[in-house]
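ok here's the first one, seq then struct tokens
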Amino acid sequence: MNDVSSRHGRTVGVRDVAALAGVSRQTVSRVLNDHPDVAPETKTRVLQAMHELDYRMNNAARALGTRRSRTLGVLASDALQYGPSRSIAAIENAARAAGYWVSAAFADAGDDDSVISAVEHLVAQGVEGIVVVAPHARTLRALDTLRVGVPVLTLHSAGRGSRGLSVDQAAGARLAVGALADAGHSRIAHLAGPADWLEAESRTEGYAAELAHRGLDPALMLVGDWTARSGYEATQAVLAADVTAVFAANDQMALGLLGGLHEVGVAVPDEISVVGFDDVPDAEYYWPRLTTVRQDFEELARRAVASLIGGSDAAASALAPIAPVLVARDSVARPR
């Protein structure tokens, strides 16, 4: 293997590591590729030699020698939204911890050719598996037309499809509505996300299911676009509907609604209670501090990476939905 790095102006390779550690080049290769048949003390000597020599692996050379790229592909759209962006970062961290690299491609979710081209680009890079951050139904339909040749998982698809990993979005919405109902609210509005987002659809389904479970009717249904502006613009419709509580499908829309209500002198939670979804880092600094539903993006990414590199058993266990958690803060109170 010809993995190399530079030290004091000359090339450092596997031969140098082997000489310093007192082992064969084959043993160094086994350590680099996480082979199980290496004694712990031998592995320690090799790793110490790599550190002393400032050795760095050349991933391309390793791929030529092992026919494995140790690279996972990530296909994403709408990467600026909080959930997808957190997941992409978490996937890279989880992959790095497992000794893998990540190659990313971005596609227009509304353009089937763009999705197909992005997948083909990743396959051409020799990736060993692909995580598709697929919040839109159309992305899933485009994927269904492809025969990729490597394992493919989807995130943010609300569990749709046979290979979808997800936080249970409907269960999270039920937690949010349940918190409001438990506080005594019966007229609960929902500020939903865009209709073409699978997670928005699941959160709306959870909202309706929890109301039905408690014998309540939907008081008001509004559709936003995930932005704080759309939450702000929903203020007048919320006030006109005479509701006492709002479940916003993400924290950004909840933030805009909090600002709109404050602007017209409506106190939260004394006059209207608000619950969000996602638990963005700023949520505990909103005024009032926002009650919301937390998603575990790190666990979602860990499962995705483990599934792609761990075989069929790991894949099967990873597909179980991850339970969300209600984070109770200050934006919910009993209605007057």
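and now the second one, same deal
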Amino acid sequence: MPNSINERIKNRRKELHLSQAELANQIGLKPPAISQYESGARRPSFEIIQKLAFALKVTTEYLISGVDQVKAQHSINLSDRLFLNIVNSLSPQDKEKLVEYAAFLATGRKIKMDILYETPKEYAEAILTEKVEEPLPIDLYKLANELGIKVLEDDLEEAEGIYIQSEFPIILLARRKKHEHRARFTLATLIAHHVLPWHLKNKYFSRKYRNNQDKNQQFGVSSLLTQEIEEMEAHQFASTLLIPTNHLTMEFTNKVVNIETVQHFAEKYHVTLFMFLNRLVDFAPEKYAVVQSDGSNIMKRFQGNRALVSKLHTNSIAASFFHKPSTQIEVRRNEVPASYWFIDSKMNETVIEESVYNPDMGRVLSLITILEEK
């Protein structure tokens, strides 16, 4: 199995007989960017990983971690093969001891895993089943306590939260005034680093400050711009933990979704509207996409199965808020050409665009719903 994200991108591109220029064109980048990703000179952001996964016809999980639930067989090197042969010869009890010892070698601490899963989402679902009682929203402080994690507040200079593993696990959260929903997501991502057994560092940061201005504004680096693979996995765990898949299935399968409905559920689960919309895209990638824009610029994208455009269309509803600004929070919706939002739009294809403007932030959040073909 290719053991790095750049190798997985390169190998999969070659399997599909795509040139770097062809792949770059499919996801709206210039060819040198693909070369840099494949050489390891640059790490792709989470947003770019989503685009690459779509273009390369693999899952984001495969690009991030190498886990491919469809293609189970990968080539492995001789040392890996020898190790797997040794592992396969052991009894279940000895296998568990080996895993514990390997984790101890890596971290100096004991990690016991009674049941193994492949993805962060599966670990989150297991935690929900084993330790979380209805009704939601989940009490993260209670969960941390049950997991043996001590949660404290401190005047942090580096990030909005830090997970530290020494003699016992500690989570430090920034003491300064913060948005409750945002702080919950920070805490959930730090719990993820404790739960995911292959996260073996002794310290993890959540929402690191770029500079003093970030700290003063109480905002760290956006979760969708992170370039750390383990932090991406922590975000996957956190979003599943805070908004369980079975609840989404119950609430949103075969139902009409709009911004007001999503806002209601975001408040119910104590998460931000942007996060809930992102989780909705993750739940139904064939149906939704989410974009945050500022003027003519698209700041953040959370796309599903289709690649989004890189620049805000001047005739989109989102752009109308900057042509005719609103003095209060306002939602505008309409059916618009799919070409406003998707690179691979078909002739005469339309989508539903719902955009909400927040004058305090000066930004627009757009939910794009793909209509079923008639």
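notes on #2: The chain has three domains: 5-65, 120-242, 245-370. Confidence is low (pLDDT under 50) at residues 69-75, 223-227.
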